[in-house]
């Protein structure tokens, strides 16, 4: 039976823990969670993880497969959690077939430093990070033939170290975007197949299509995240408060930058994707705004910052992305001052 390790007890980490724990009950995999702090691991081990689901009919309510939520759509479950891997390393070294990296882009390196030794020699690491450039970081630790990307439109919010709200469901795409390898492919196929059993919209794509999907998700995040953060609204209010021409301008910058990176995107397709994501995640507070509200750094450098960086390299001008990047950075910096 394959062993899966979720790294990060944040929004996405706890969400995947929920599904993997259900699959473990059906003997389809083994799963455990790695947290950053001992406090989080202790609290999760003692009191369990709580998922509140705000979507309707998110699951098949089958009395045999134990995936049902109770009437308040809240479930509490247990998933073994560890933080101090050094103490456990002998027991766990080479244990994992798949690492699901559910940390912010700026924590990816430290998470990999801590967890790479958990991977078996053929094990693979899957990064759920938004933005671009993360997969290269993963590959620098495990090799390109063992690094994969997950692009997800699930919308989950973390309330505390063991509680999340699932706001909306969306596609999750797995892909070996850097290079093909049979081991990587087999592990992604396995992940796809078991998560499908949880009735989730999971897809497996080839690397060319997946790179395109990665840029599409980047466009969605480059529009929604900085704008919702600057005007401090839940996603659903964006279409009322921001003129469509601004969405269009940001998308054109991404289309042109992607093209120079060898990815052909369709502008009207991006606009549809953005409006669908806003509609589907209307009650969600985007992660960048959550970060600002909680005094944490944001991932804007891997979003509009990364587009601006690439565009500069290509000699392109992307004033919308540059401006939004600097405004969000200024909001981050403002948290350090008393003015
Ligand atoms: N949330 C969503 O709906 C969603 C959707 C699509 C994509 N994403 C992307 O997925 C990634 C994760 O997002 P998230 O929303 O789950 O973030 P999050 O709620 O901030 O959670 C990140 C978690 O990573 C933990 N962490 C940091 N360093 C670690 C380490 N060395 N070892 C173990 N755990 C570590 C943090 O621990 P502490 O709590 O102790 O700091 C935190 O619990 C981001 O790139 C995000 O953009 C998220």
UniProtKB/TrEMBL annotation:
Record domain Ketopantoate reductase C-terminal: where: 210-332
EC number: 1.1.1.169
Keywords of this entry: NADP, Oxidoreductase
Example GO molecular function: NADP binding
Top-level taxon: Eukaryota
GO biological-process terms attached to the record: pantothenate biosynthetic process
GO cellular component, one term: cytoplasm
Span of domain Ketopantoate reductase N-terminal: 5-176
Alphabetical list of PANTHER family matching this protein: 2-DEHYDROPANTOATE 2-REDUCTASE, 2-DEHYDROPANTOATE 2-REDUCTASE-RELATED
UniProt similarity note: Belongs to the ketopantoate reductase family.
NCBIfam families: apbA_panE
Protein name, UniProt field: 2-dehydropantoate 2-reductase
Classification of source organism: Eukaryota, Rhodophyta, Bangiophyceae, Galdieriales, Galdieriaceae
């Amino acid at each position: 039976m394959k062993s899966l390790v979720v790294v990060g007890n944040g929004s996405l980490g706890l969400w995947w823990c929920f599904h993997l724990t259900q699959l473990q009950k059906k003997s389809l995999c083994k799963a455990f969670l790695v947290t950053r702090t001992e406090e989080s691991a202790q609290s999760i081990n003692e009191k369990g993880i709580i998922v509140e689901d705000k979507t309707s009919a998110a699951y098949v309510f089958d009395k045999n497969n134990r995936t049902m939520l109770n009437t308040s759509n809240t479930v509490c479950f247990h998933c073994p959690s560890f933080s101090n891997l050094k103490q456990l390393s002998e027991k766990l070294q080479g244990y994992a077939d798949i690492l699901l990296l559910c940390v912010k882009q700026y924590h990816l390196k430290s998470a990999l430093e801590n967890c790479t030794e958990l991977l078996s020699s053929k094990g693979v690491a899957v990064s759920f990070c938004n933005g671009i450039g993360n997969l290269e970081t993963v590959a620098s630790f495990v090799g390109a033939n063992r690094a994969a990307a997950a692009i997800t439109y699930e919308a989950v919010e973390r309330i505390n170290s063991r509680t999340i709200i699932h706001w909306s469901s969306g596609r999750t795409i797995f892909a070996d975007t850097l290079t093909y390898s049979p081991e990587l492919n087999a592990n992604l196929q396995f992940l796809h197949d078991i998560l499908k059993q949880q009735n989730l919209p999971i897809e497996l794509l080839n690397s060319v299509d997946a790179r395109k999907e990665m840029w599409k998700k980047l466009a969605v995040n480059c529009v929604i995240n900085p704008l919702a953060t600057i005007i401090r609204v839940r996603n659903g209010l964006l279409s009322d408060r921001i003129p469509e021409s601004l969405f269009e301008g940001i998308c054109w910058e991404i289309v042109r930058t992607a093209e120079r990176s060898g990815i052909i995107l369709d502008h009207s397709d991006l606009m549809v994707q953005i409006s669908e994501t806003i509609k589907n995640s209307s009650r969600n507070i985007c992660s960048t705004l959550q970060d600002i509200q909680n005094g944490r750094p944001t991932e804007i450098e891997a979003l509009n910052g990364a587009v601006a960086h690439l565009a500069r390299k290509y000699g392109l001008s992307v004033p919308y992305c540059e401006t939004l990047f600097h405004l969000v950075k200024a909001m981050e910096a403002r948290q350090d001052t008393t003015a």
